[in-house]
């Protein structure tokens, strides 16, 4: 059955249906949605939206009009109620939405609730509870080790192959795609400098990552086993873990990154449900070290339920693609990260977000940070917009991605983009 | 004017008035407050309470009965609306509360709204937004450096005297005093072990800290200067940063503590407003290194507005005092920590919580962790309940504290206590 108004093969066809939160830039009669009378800024009513091609279906309004029992989950200003509803509800809602956008009988009801993307403002789609960031690409970890610890015997720290290394980040500065990023100021000190100096970061970088969004919570004291990943994680998004390398280098020993990361983390406006990514599931790289049972995904059971995802990411600076990091190369899977994060009894909350860590493939064209792409600033990139080691004010960084979908289709992930503005 | 039913000199007299959130264990007619009919567990209606002696004033009900304009801030199940109301409102509400518990004309109204502490359940008093933990005691940092990096030239890392080192923790596992702490499991590996082993932590420790609670938010991109501390921070509490030293030691290089800390952080049920601690303000220790301007509290202006607090903490294990850490010895102040945390443009949210870091004085009787008290398990403590290096199942740890108040009084801080239960 043909979907409504989406060309064959569109990566945002009815096989995808990612979720976001939107508001109309102006009300249907053409007046501004903002009560201030200023420029359209999406200050109108927020609702859960579902993307179909270049349109957004007002899923909340559709649920109400169609008398759906899911109106209580969809006619809301955030995805959190849907996230909290659990896996069975996620499947049921997805099935209902698929019918709404494909069954001709619904067309008359649904068509007026489809808004062009250009007419809406997209908002941070969920309230972020805790934000954790991992470090799960072996290529990335080895590159960083070689750059920062050139004299070390092994570029990986001794724990790296035994556990997915992670740390908590600042959930209050997670922002939606399109939000400007103010260049952070802070302390930096080159080894030869007598004392630290203060000023805007001069080594502002990106990290191309995938973010996982927790729906179903878990109680304190009860670890979530590897096999329960799909019961807790609703979906994924693209994530840019902006990083001020100079601030980070001076501050991070012994307690880890702090101000070098906490100024901003950008996520895509669309959360792709894991149910849309069944055809993208792949086995992770072979494990070179035996894993403790709570992380072991090499058993037959686990191997039949692979934890990797084949996501093809693209990193563009000022519209020019500089890298295509392959997510399938990640050593640690999102399921292992969830099992590790909770094995000490830490609870999960609806809205918890965790980043995969920078995605870097084996080749130069697959690296997920400028730190690696320029080898810590040694080899500048030649872009149409000029030479770059790290980011300059005005630069726009955009991550996009797609995954294999059913029957040879592609599943598009929402882009995450941000522009650097000068610091104070 | 005599306060209602509080002995002269009580550390929770009307000069203190800390805030919490409580519910009655049973309704006034004697039936259980819990709709399940089970044992009284504080499942009844939550309201903001103010402690006076060994009683809790139902501040929400008092505000309603007295027709106070602050009912909208106090007749609430969490402190967040009061926190968000800002400094002027904090002072006004405190002035009103002081009148309600001291002016005889209010006695008839207020007395029935005073509940014995034994009749109420105290809850986590605010919704924690981001949680950050610092490392601000020079004694503690030097002790830890000597224990973990005995071969280092200096026990402090090179950045320590230039910035208050901190990291983000897990806000979802911040729990109120009295909550049991399940012993965490995880990976540990002694240097001589061939591979990590998994199991319950065998080096479970405490960290005696003070927590600061942010009320007034700040926008992204705008640092909060040193002098604006009192405009943003509402008050403080005691905080126990439970730490699994064996998990932490194996995981923390290079990205800092994660599972070794994220299983639980306990805070006292009472938040002491900074306005109650005017007489406890002291200058921090002399600065041995010049500070960058955004952290410099040695100017004449800053010196007249000292950033330290003279809080006398006491750490008891199974009722036996093992240490009395003096908060006045902290090198970095809470004002400096706030200025540092936001200097990169990171925003603040109502409910942000930040810990001072372990409080350790210069002498053995003033150390804020078992790691230091037993020198990493080398010198066991002889307690009435037996020898201890680290915590055993069933152990109860309680932090209490007081500060100098007006006219020779003491201002009591709410205790933070927790019992270790066996892991799964």
Task: State the main characteristics.
12 helices, eight-stranded mixed sheet, 424 residues, metal-binding (chains A, B), 26 strands, five-stranded antiparallel sheet, homodimer, calcium (chains A, B), EC 3.7.1.2 (chains A, B), alpha+beta, fumarylacetoacetase (chains A, B)
Q: Largest sheet of chain A, if any?
A: 8 strands, mixed
- Tell me the fraction of residues in β-strands of chain A, as a range: 25-35%
**Helix/sheet category of chain A:** alpha+beta
Overall pLDDT confidence of chain A = 94
List the quaternary state of the chains: homodimer
Task: Give the tally of β-strands of chain A.
Answer: 26
The number of helices of chain A is 12
Helix proportion of residues of chain A, in percent?
10-25%
Distance between the termini of chain A: 55 Å
The largest inter-chain interface, given as chain pair and residues per side, is: A-B, 63 and 63 residues
- Taken from the alpha-carbon principal axes, the silhouette of chain A is globular
Low-confidence parts of chain A, pLDDT < 50 over ≥5 residues? 31-40
Radius of gyration of chain A: 22 Å
């Amino acid at each position: 059955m043909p979907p409504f108004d989406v060309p064959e093969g569109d990566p945002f066809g009815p096989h995808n249906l990612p979720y976001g939160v939107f508001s109309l830039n102006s009300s249907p009669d053409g007046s501004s949605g903002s009560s201030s009378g200023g420029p359209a800024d999406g200050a109108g009513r927020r609702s859960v939206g579902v993307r179909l091609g270049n349109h957004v279906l007002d899923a909340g309004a559709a649920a109400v009009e169609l008398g759906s029992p899911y109106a209580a989950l969809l006619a809301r200003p955030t995805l959190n109620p849907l996230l909290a509803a659990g896996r069975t509800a996620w499947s049921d809602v997805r099935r209902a939405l698929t019918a709404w956008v494909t069954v001709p009988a619904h067309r008359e009801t649904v068509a007026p609730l489809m808004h062009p993307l250009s007419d809406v403002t997209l908002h941070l789609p969920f309230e972020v509870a805790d934000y954790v960031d991992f470090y799960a690409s072996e290529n990335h970890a080895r590159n960083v080790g070689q750059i920062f610890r050139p004299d070390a015997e092994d570029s990986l720290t001794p724990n790296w192959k035994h556990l997915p290394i992670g740390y908590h980040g600042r959930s209050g500065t997670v922002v939606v795609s399109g939000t400007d990023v103010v260049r952070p100021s802070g302390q930096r000190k080159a080894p030869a400098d007598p004392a630290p100096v203060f000023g805007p970061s001069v080594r502002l970088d990106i990290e191309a990552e995938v973010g996982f969004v927790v729906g179903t919570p878990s109680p304190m004291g009860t670890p979530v086993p590897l096999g329960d990943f799909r019961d807790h994680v609703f979906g994924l998004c693209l994530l840019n873990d902006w990083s001020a390398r100079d601030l980070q280098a001076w501050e991070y020993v012994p307690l880890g990154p702090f101000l070098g990361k906490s100024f901003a983390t950008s996520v895509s406006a669309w959360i792709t449900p894991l149910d849309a990514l069944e055809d993208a599931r792949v086995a992770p790289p072979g494990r070179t070290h035996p894993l403790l049972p709570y992380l072991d995904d090499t058993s037959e059971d686990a191997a039949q339920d692979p934890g990797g995802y084949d996501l093809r990411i693209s990193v563009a600076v000022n519209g020019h693609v500089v890298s295509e990091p392959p997510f399938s190369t990640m050593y640690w899977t999102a399921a292992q990260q969830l099992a590790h994060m909770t094995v000490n009894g830490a609870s999960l909350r609806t809205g918890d977000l965790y980043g995969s860590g920078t995605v870097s493939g084996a080749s130069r064209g697959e690296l997920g940070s400028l730190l690696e792409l320029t080898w810590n600033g040694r080899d500048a990139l030649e872009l149409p917009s000029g030479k770059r080691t790290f980011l300059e004010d005005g630069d726009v960084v955009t991550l996009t991605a797609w995954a294999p979908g059913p029957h040879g289709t592609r599943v598009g992930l929402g882009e995450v983009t941000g522009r650097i503005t000068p610091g104070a």
